[in-house]
Write a structure and sequence with these properties.
about 25% strand; UDP-N-acetylmuramoyl-L-alanine:D-glutamate ligase; Protein-Tyrosine Phosphatase, Chain A; single chain; 3 domains; alpha/beta
Length: about 500
């Protein structure tokens, strides 16, 4: 496709060469991933690109470069036949170019995008399971755990982004369309929306789960964080499914009159759950929809799990799938890796691995466990580095309030000193008077918690869920919470 076709209708200025050059390889933000025939997008601030990557990109075969700013003298080799185009915002331009290069892949499938502080991965997995079980549908999933169609993973460069950059997202959508997917469900993070990664994805249903304090290191204020989430409902999706129990969710119908479906437990809604009965094996409830009542159950304990199930159920039903088949599938859903994932040890201890890494999610998970635990509750957790520091003592207080014993450990310290992070979390723990121990090595911390547990106790390992790594500085070190639990609890 010609560069002029990729940018047609988008404000741009030709700085060097002409724009009729043929682009034969996908647009690329990473200089070291450029291949012959690529359009290299020099986005300012990109960790493996930007203006500094132009030389590498040209050496690897880029035939055109997209820039925002003036490029320093000496950047372009005298012998290079390069086309250079300047745009106001490379983020929006690369999204448009990627969508067009891959042939607008979102048009050929039902695309569901889920945003909110908590529940994105759970709702995504539930949505896929409902369609897979009830319709034997092939569903693409893109999010925190990577990208896959069914059980087949799509190889991608290692990344910590739940919402991939626009070139990668459109590539994944194209692959999923080629694999015969009927639908794709993706996690739309606040930064993903703010950075235009989801632009042009032809989202059929946008789902809003909830909003609570998190990511203030990125957004500064809760208002800015909220506004980033709401971008999904400002013309990016055709219809919305929103949590009416959440104040922000309750306001979304005003943004999209006549196009919003609601779900709730407390508030009146199009899909409402009442009469919840929770035990260690799951949750039973009554679904109210369109003037009728339906008995329902999910194999996951907790009120928050029912809320997530309502979101997935509503999204599927809005897209035309049979409600009876969906409810039958709901009871048969498999465990979601790293989301209230259960393991029973030979000694009669229940271990729960969960991604809870914000005050709200930790509170909900621990409240649920406290409600059914026959014995003590032991919590292993920490807080991530280079993230909102104001939640650390708060999370310590939450853990101490619900637990009989806490083991404070390292999460993803990134560039911070793990001991400093634990000092801040410990301030909140001390307020509760709950006994706690410190062990910065996460493997040893989990081992310590299991050694303290007795029959009937519940051990929660919180914060990382299904992540297969720990982030220490620039390194992604292999580490998996559930694998560690299984290793330390041989049959």
């Amino acid at each position: 496709m010609k560069l002029s076709e990729l940018l047609n209708g988008h404000d741009h200025q030709v700085v060097r060469g002409d724009k009729d050059v043929l682009i034969t390889a996908a647009p690329c933000l990473d200089a070291d991933r450029v291949t012959t025939g690529s359009l290299y997008v020099a986005r300012p601030g990109h960790p493996t690109g930007g203006v500094e990557g132009i030389g590498t990109a040209l050496a690897r075969g880029a035939v055109a470069v997209l820039v925002e700013d003036e490029v320093p003298d000496g950047t372009w080799p005298d012998t290079a036949d390069v086309r250079v185009v300047r745009v106001i915002d490379t983020r929006t331009a690369v999204a448009l170019a990627s969508v067009r290069f891959h042939g607008e892949p979102g048009r050929g499938m039902d695309v569901v995008a889920i945003t909110g502080t908590n529940g994105k991965t759970s709702v995504s997995s539930m949505y896929e399971s409902l369609l897979r079980i009830s319709k034997r549908a092939r569903v693409g999933v893109i999010g925190t755990s990577g990208a896959r169609t069914g059980d087949d993973r799509i190889p991608m460069p290692r990344s910590v982004l739940s919402t991939p950059e626009a070139p990668d997202l459109q590539y994944l959508l194209a692959r999923m369309r080629a694999r015969g997917c009927d639908s794709v469900v993706l996690e739309a993070t606040s930064m993903g929306l703010l950075n235009h990664r989801v632009d042009g994805s032809f989202v059929d249903v946008g789902v809003f789960t909830n909003l609570s304090q998190d990511h203030l290191d990125d957004h500064g204020t809760m208002d800015s964080y909220r506004d980033a989430k709401l971008l999904l409902f400002g013309g990016m999706c055709r219809r919305a499914v929103v949590n009416a129990d959440d104040p922000v969710g309750a306001g979304i119908p005003a943004l999209m009159p006549g196009a919003v479906t609601t779900y709730a437990i407390d508030a009146e809604a199009d899909y409402r759950a009442t009469d919840l009965v929770v035990d260690a094996s799951g949750t039973r409830f009554v679904l109210h929809h369109d003037g009728r009542k339906y008995p329902a159950a999910i194999p996951v304990p907790g009120r928050f799990s029912v809320s997530n199930a309502l979101a997935a159920l509503a999204a599927c039903h809005v897209l035309g799938h049979d409600l009876g088949g969906l409810l039958a599938a709901l009871e048969r859903m498999p465990q979601i890796p790293g989301r209230f994932e259960h393991f029973g040890t030979p000694d009669g201890v229940s271990v729960i691995v969960d991604y809870a890494h914000s005050p709200d999610s930790l509170d909900k998970v621990l409240a649920t466990i406290r409600g059914f635990a026959p014995g003590r509750v032991i919590t292993v957790f920490g807080c991530g580095g280079d993230r909102d520091t104001t939640k650390r003592a708060w999370m310590g207080e939450i853990a101490g309030t619900y637990s009989d014993l806490c083991v404070l450990t390292s999460d993803n310290p990134r560039y911070e000193d793990p001991e400093t992070i634990m000092d801040q979390v410990a301030q909140g723990l001390r307020k509760t008077g709950t006994a706690f121990e410190r062990e910065g090595d996460r493997h040893r911390a989990i081992a310590l918690a299991l050694s303290r547990a007795r029959e009937g106790d519940v051990v929660l390992v919180a914060g990382k869920g299904s992540e297969a790594y720990q982030i220490v500085g620039d390194d992604l070190l292999p580490f998996d919470d559930m694998s560690t639990v299984r290793e330390l609890s041989p049959a």
